[in-house]
Amino acid sequence: MLKIKLEPDTAQEFAALAAAYDTTVSALMTIALHRFLEAPGRYKHPMLREAERTSLSDWVDVMVNPSSKQQIWRLAGRYGDKLNTSLLRVALRRLLEVPGDLAGDLETIAPLRDLRPEIYARANVHFDEPLRDKLDGLAARVGSDRAELMRHAARRVLEEPGKIEQAVNNEVFRSEKNRKHLMARHACRQARRHTQPD
User: What is the C-alpha separation between 47 and 85, in angstroms, rounded?
Assistant: First the structure.
């Protein structure tokens, strides 16, 4: 959640636009930032003018996607401290001046949790061909990809560990590389159990 300070007239225009499209000011802000980050153009001087405004008296609360916030903070930081909300106002004013296809953007952009990919640690996972093909087929059906399905699978395992040990052992035994070693270790353990005195 961020607070943006606006003139009363601008705050009312912002609220009226949200009401006209039966949406929220946060959804409009998401669209404004998306458009700005896609094509920032010249923003230094408008941002500095925003920083000098003295007629700002109305506070407006908006929800902003984390990655959009980071991008805005980075762009604003090139020209000095505490210009972040000034750059937010630049993006907002551009939206108010040129609403464009708001109806379309409200359907395709506003609902997204985040518009830029999160940064994940990379892990190599080896699949046999049937499992790989099933993953790719499922990903194609739901409009996703193999990596995203693996992240969902990992979350499910962590949320419901249950039979994870048995599942891991089954996968380990499936590996030709480990099979002989594991079978030999299992035989040694069994022999040790039978030879230990009661």
Answer: 9
Q: Tens digits of per-residue pLDDT, 16-49?
A: 999 999 888 888 998 999 889 888 888 999 999 9
Cα–Cα dist 135/167, whole Å: 18
Q: What type of residue is 12? A: Q
Greatest CA separation for the chain: 89
H or E segment at 146?
Answer: helix 146-159
Select from 145, 157, 138, 140 the least CA-distant residue to 120. 145
Rounded to whole angstroms, the Cα distance separating 136 from 37 reads 32
Q: CA–CA separation, 33 vs 128, rounded Å?
A: 43
d(CA 196, CA 96): 82
Q: Residue 22's closest CA among 78, 96, 87, 106?
A: 106
Total number of residues shown for the chain: 198
pTM more than 0.90: no
d(CA 130, CA 36) in angstroms, rounded, equals 44
Number of neighbours of residue 15 by Cβ within 10 angstroms: 16
